[in-house]
Request: fold
Amino acid sequence: MKHLSILVPDEQTNMSTIACIVGANQVFSEANNYLARKDEKAIFKIELVGATKSDFLNNNLISIKHQVAISEIDRTDLILIPASLIRSYDTASKNNKLLIDWVAKHYKQGAEIASMCAGSFMLASSGILDGKTCSTHWALSENFRELFPNVNLQTDQLITDENGIYTNGGAYSFLHLLMYLVEKFYDRQIAIHCAKYFQIDLDRNLQAEFSIFNGHKKHNDEAILMAQKILEENYKDKISFEKLSFDLNIGRRNFDRRFIKATGFTPLDYLQRVKTEAAKKMFETTRKTVNEIMYEVGYNDAKAFRDVFSRVTGRSPLEYKSKYNKESRWS
Reply:
């Protein structure tokens, strides 16, 4: 039987931490129960794991006591890291540093690791994410990139899977990661059962439609900050990046390089995301048609607008409007 370790952090937690722990325990327990009802052996022995023997997770509303301490586990196969308030190794409590080091140790010994939502910060603090792709809550992306520049953060992705490391986007999307892991470690039929039992959509791959693009401005490049301001204030107009870089007294190639370094996006991709965010707000709050909104955000080509919008959000303009604008459903 494989061993599943669901981490119980020491302090630095919130209700999301508890939701991740309880949710993971329930989903994997139900997957085991499904097998038991068919007189088959469970895949995982599931244990809540803490840094020491006696600690409780306590956020003044709910307390959780883990079952075993890391010192009692010689080998584990899958470690689940819940969301937490840990933002870096330097700011982690003493016991959470022990957990971070324990995760890195067991990954090197062959364990697979999955982080839920902001648990990616704890995972990245271990160093094992360097050079790899991960996701986290879109609202935490700037902070994450600032702390962990060697990690390839992809917040458009709901789930990432690379070299035995799994991560997911924000908040309660951890449930989609759990379905993904159940299918991977059990099978598709059991994943479908768990999805029906807990009423969770299967096969959701993007968190892009939930993201709110507000620019990436936690950097110190004043010229690029000015470029961002110009793009955000003039996105409806036809913008020449050649002229913009010239006006800022930066060579064109150097402008692109500095823009990508500061924001994580090319100038064109940044502008497209600004336009898309403006379009999303209009789809959500007005009864304007797709073509009307397309023109208002500076597009003249319906296919180009549709392609960019779909790439950024994961939905077509019409699908997005139908889902998020209540009035449009009845019009």
